[in-house]
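Side project, low priority. Logging it here so it doesn't get lost.
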Amino acid sequence: MIELLLENGVDLMETDSDGVSALDMAIKFKRKDVIAFCIDKGFDLNATKRKSGIKPV
């Protein structure tokens, strides 16, 4: 599913109104496959837009 979204121009770095990213959600739900995919696609592990300033990793 994520590959299909990427093929259609979805930005993995995009966040919701609270600054939560796809990587944040993958970590929350323990989706190791999605975490690995985000890392393989170059997701910046130090980036955060969260109001708390907490980074995903």
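Brief comment: The chain has one domain: 1-57.
Revisit when time allows.
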